[in-house]
Amino acid sequence: MATASDAAQDYHDDNDEGEDDEDFDDDLDDEDEEEEDDDEDDQPPSCPSEEARLEAVLRRLTADEVRIRVHEVAIRGCGRTRRAAVEAAVGPDLARAATVRDLVRAAAAARDRLRRLGAFDAVSITLDAAPPGIPGTGGGGAVVVLVDVSEARGRAAGDLGIFANAQSRSCSLEGSLKLKNLFGYCETWNASGALELDRTAELCAGVEMPRIGAIPTPLMAQISLLSEDWLKSSLKEHLMGISVGLLSTTNHNLAYNFSWRTLTDPARSAPNSIQEQLGNSLLSSIKYAYKVDQRDSSIRPTHGYAFQSSSQIGGLAPGSKYSRFLRQEFDLRVALPLGVLNGALNAGVAAGVIHPLERGCTGSVSPLSEKFYLGGNRPLVCRLGGPSSLLGFKARGLGPTDFRTCGLNNSDGASTSPELNGLGGDIAMTAFADLSFDIPLKPLRDLGIHGHAFVSAGNIAKLTERDLRKFPLHDFLQTFRSSAGFGVVVPTRFFRVEMNYCLILKQFDHDKGKTGIQFNFSSP
């Protein structure tokens, strides 16, 4: 194999004597600059004049149109990883490169794609001279591209946690498991589960596979099982579904969802507005999402912005009891640094609407599971996902409601008092502002523990008119609920803990808001 100094000498002789460039070597190792500095420290220093000469030659190789011909792209280091998976990530640009500049660019792009697979600890792309007797083309020499990969050792990762919510007096056990490159296609297998004391169980398993061979896009498939007793409700829901990713890139995602749902009312006390949705139903929808997140952190953003837009068309299953509908959501977040105590102001607004796509449709526009619900203790600044969080209010604790019909108590036969069932809404909007700051105690700062103060507001309503232009926007804005508070945030590797004092600023009859101290455990 030719060395870098040999490449410099060969290139110098070719320029003096007019001979073809047959031997040169350009190392495109993907190690970080710090690692390169460490390696250089371990080796004896070379002559400054030789380093300057080599740097000048390499600069000229990439600046001028030095023609070459790639004879072969050799992939080395694959053990359990399939060669087809690495070839798909490398792509055809390396073999098609006609100049040194094109080859350097193609190698950098291929190295980045191999890194994103997450199956390799190290990736190195090296150029070497072709075997003797291999002719070049167009005055350029023939080269061999060597792609060396080092497979990651650990293939499994998982976590298990217990999360408590003091406001709703509930506790849940959550766990997840990930297996990487199990069958050699650089795929990721994941499974997760959650069990809550309010008799809610959720299981989910799926696989993500990168682009391989003729497959034009990464593939994703997910199966989920859900059994839920609605909070403070007589309804029980069982849901089994599958989601298949049709398109997945850095910013775009297209998925098809197909699920079978069973909604029952064992107490026979559901209001008339929900009676029509009881029983079995087939739910089918296609969803497109665009997402960009330029924040420096999703746990505690101090600068940047994030935006997500999702469009879902539902009611696609033949014979569905629901009309075709469009569910549109927007979510925008902005983080501004303040320069004092590492403070930052985070602000966000989210909105969503569900609108029928068919004229003269009757019955429910969308299933209860697809409607908007506000309330709960979801963190304000972490994840994007449309309107949902409103601190100080219980989950499904505000919005359109209907009284349950009176039923009999199973224990003593006494008549139960009517309670309210949350019906969800077809249009929702939330907004918040959150001020985060360091606590002036060094031990707490070192652990990432910080304080914050917040204000949040939102509203939810039903669409009584099919025409959105007739929606009473002024009344909708006048009936916004709001809350404010302050607290301490404790971020950890597996979950985020918030201890907040919430003050309800505005609520209406039948809303389930409460002023007081609240604890929130959530995934980061």
Characteristic key phrases:
single chain, 524 residues, alpha+beta, four-stranded mixed beta sheet, 22 strands, disordered N terminus
Structure notes:
The chain is of the alpha+beta class and 524 residues long. Helix content is 16%, strand content 42%. It contains nine helices and 22 strands. The strands form three sheets. It has a 16-stranded antiparallel beta sheet with strand order 5-6-7-8-9-10-11-12-13-14-15-18-19-20-21-22, with no helix packed on it. A hairpin with a 7-residue loop joins strand 6 and strand 7. The longest helix has 17 residues.
Number of strands: 22
What would you call the shape? globular
Unreliable segments (pLDDT under 50, ≥5 consecutive)? 1-46, 407-418
Radius of gyration: 30 Å
Percent helix range: 10-25%
The main sheet orders its strands as 5-6-7-8-9-10-11-12-13-14-15-18-19-20-21-22
Category by helix and strand content: alpha+beta
Taking the sheet with the most strands, its summary is: 16 strands, antiparallel
Report, as a whole number of angstroms, the end-to-end distance.
Answer: 49 Å
Our estimate of the beta-strand percent is 35-45%
Helix count equals: 9
What is the mean pLDDT? 76
Q: What's the short version?
A:
With 524 residues, this protein is α+β, with helices and mostly antiparallel strands.
Write the layout of secondary structure elements.
Layout: H1 4-17, E1 27-29, H2 33-42, H3 48-63, E2 68-76, H4 83-90, H5 93-96, H6 100-116, E3 120-129, E4 141-151, E5 156-165, E6 170-180, E7 188-196, E8 200-209, E9 219-229, E10 236-248, E11 252-264, H7 272-275, E12 279-293, E13 304-314, E14 325-337, E15 344-356, E16 401-403, E17 420-422, E18 427-438, H8 442-446, E19 450-461, H9 473-478, E20 481-491, E21 496-506, E22 516-522
Helix pairs in contact: 1-3
